[in-house]
Amino acid sequence: MGEVSTIGIDLAKNVFQAHGADASGAVLFRKKLRRHQVLIFFAGQKPCTVAMEASAAPITGRARSAGLVTRSG
User: Fold this and answer.
1) Which of 27, 35, 31, 30 is nearest to 11 (CA)?
2) Reading across the β-sheet that carries 15-21, which strands appear in turn?
């Protein structure tokens, strides 16, 4: 199994879907997360690119407050 280089997260009100892929695009995991599990999950990940929908301002703010690097594009 490769190392996660990108995590895509589908944001919702209470349940989030996270999908991890390696540099070649091979899927490494698909995980369902409840709202209270999201920051705990990401705190346990190695640095990588995280892709989320553009309207993620509240989540992005929480991620920044947790010391994670964020970027919009």
Assistant:
1) 35
2) 27-34, 15-21, 6-10, 49-52
Cα angle 68, 27, 42; round to 5: 20
65 sits in which H/E element:
helix 57-65
Strand extents, DSSP E, 1-73: 6-10, 15-21, 27-34, 49-52
* The two three-digit tokens of residue 31, written as one number: 């995980």
Helical (H) or strand (E) element with 61? helix 57-65
Predicted TM-score of the model (pTM): 0.70
- pLDDT at site 70: 63
**For 49-65, how does the pLDDT look when each residue is reduced to its tens digit (9 = 90+)?**
998 865 556 666 666 77
